[in-house]
């Protein structure tokens, strides 16, 4: 006669054997893996209860949410900056309309707000990479000082570094007689016009910058004749009644 303990042990052995055989019959590979797999406890944090969420899924949601918040904040900052630039440009355009009443040609930088730091022609390069022949006139002035269109015209080109890293931000205006004037070294945020835009004499088109090959904040102003050659800006301005 079997004792209760032996009967219990035999019953458990019989159930386990039957379960293993059932697995082997149904899915041999799966059953073998189940029998041979080490007894590794499953962390409680990874167990789904009632459709719960795995820890790494929750982490992914949190990271994505943080990235979205940062992206939204960056977009808000950029939109605010663009609005500020547009507002400033609009205010300065109104001021330019008032200045344009004085004549058909004006100084690119208001008198009293600058000093001439480099003239047209041969020179000792002031910095590594600077040219030994200066094809423009430099107006040294504080950052953001208004830069004006010297004559009415059309914005032919707006760029940043596309004429070489030495130039920084660039605006080129084409005037009625075919002459072009270029304004250089602005930051991208310091350019207030776009290609194809009509501008009036004296209209503020940019703010003085310090980009590219530069030894300090200044406007590099060049005059290009219709054949593409440069000419001495001081003489060109003086011939039109402007003495920087």
Walk me through this protein's architecture:
By secondary structure, this protein is of the alpha+beta class. The chain has a domain of 138 residues: Glucose Permease (Domain IIA) (Distorted Sandwich). Helices cover 34% and strands 21% of the residues. It has four helices and twelve strands, in the order αααββββββββββββα. The strands form three sheets. Strands 1, 4, 6, 7, 8, 9, 11 and 12 form an eight-stranded antiparallel beta sheet that branches.
Order of helices and strands: HHHEEEEEEEEEEEEH
**What structural class is derived from the secondary structure elements?**
alpha+beta
Helix content: 25-40%
Mean pLDDT: 73
CATH topology of the domain at 101-238: Glucose Permease (Domain IIA)
Q: What is the class of the domain at 101-238 in the CATH system? A: Mainly Beta
Give the N-to-C terminal Cα separation.
123 Å
How big a fraction of the residues is strand? 15-25%
- What is the CATH architecture descriptor of the domain at 101-238? Distorted Sandwich
**Biggest β-sheet, characterized?**
8 strands, antiparallel
Count of alpha/pi helices: 4
Would you report the number of β strands? 12
Low-confidence stretches: 1-11, 18-51, 53-57, 92-102
Described by the principal axes of the CA atoms, the overall outline is: globular
Radius of gyration of CA atoms, rounded to a whole number:
38 Å
Signal peptide: 1-33
Organism: Serinibacter salmoneus
Keywords: Signal
Protein name: Peptidase M23-like protein
